[in-house]
Amino acid sequence: MTLDSYFNILEIKQTTSKREIKSAWKKCLFKYHPDKADQSNEEELKQANQKTIEINKAYDYLKNNIIDLDPFEEAICEVEINWDIRKGVSSSNLKWIEYYKELHILIVQFKSGGLYLYESVNYETYVGLVQSDSKGRFLNKNIAYKFIYHRLAKYEDWYKFGKQIFHKQLNNFN
């Protein structure tokens, strides 16, 4: 069997985490359990038993051979897939902004070259910035001095701070 077939048997995507694999395994076992088959129909019972064996085999293989991503990596994958994050802005002093909704992270690139990451920025504040007539003024009044920020030397540095922020949020949640 191929790796794809194991995912297909459990009716899941290849980007699924171990926790989701286990949940899918339980759902499939419940859905295709031999006790749900017509006991008087030998062929249906045989198919249900075979399907249960395939489900268990797929689960055993995937749970032992799939490496879970760090929760931050999973969140970033979700963000990059589901969210158009970078927006060029028409502003006298801002070049572009990015917002990671699930992580509450705002990244701002100034036309002067400064690059900043702001923590814990709620979505409403981000929308207010995007819709504001004076984005620089809105940023100074509502974001710059109200949220923790980090000056980034280069764009790729956001990832390091983002990971720290994410794990801090995760620990506060648990």
Task: Record the SSE blueprint.
Layout: H1 3-9, H2 18-32, H3 42-65, H4 71-82, E1 86-88, E2 94-100, E3 105-110, E4 115-118, H5 123-131, H6 135-144, E5 149-151, H7 157-173
Antiparallel strand pairs: 1-2, 2-3, 3-4, 4-5
Helix pairs in contact: 1-3, 2-3, 5-6
Quick structural gist:
With 174 residues, the chain is α+β, with helices and mostly antiparallel strands. The chain has seven helices and five strands, in the order H-H-H-H-E-E-E-E-H-H-E-H. It folds into two domains: 3-65, DnaJ domain (Helix Hairpins), CATH 1.10.287; 71-173, no CATH class.
Verbal overview:
The chain is an alpha+beta fold and 174 residues long. The chain folds into two domains: 3-65, Helix Hairpins; 71-173, no CATH class. The chain is 54% helix and 13% strand. It contains seven helices and five strands, in the order H-H-H-H-E-E-E-E-H-H-E-H. The protein has helices at 3-9, 18-32, 42-65, 71-82, 123-131, 135-144, 157-173; strands spanning 86-88, 94-100, 105-110, 115-118, 149-151. A five-stranded antiparallel sheet has the order 1-2-3-4-5, sandwiched between helices. Strand 2 and strand 3 (105-110) form a beta hairpin. The two termini are 39 Å apart. Mean pLDDT is 78; it is low at 77-84.
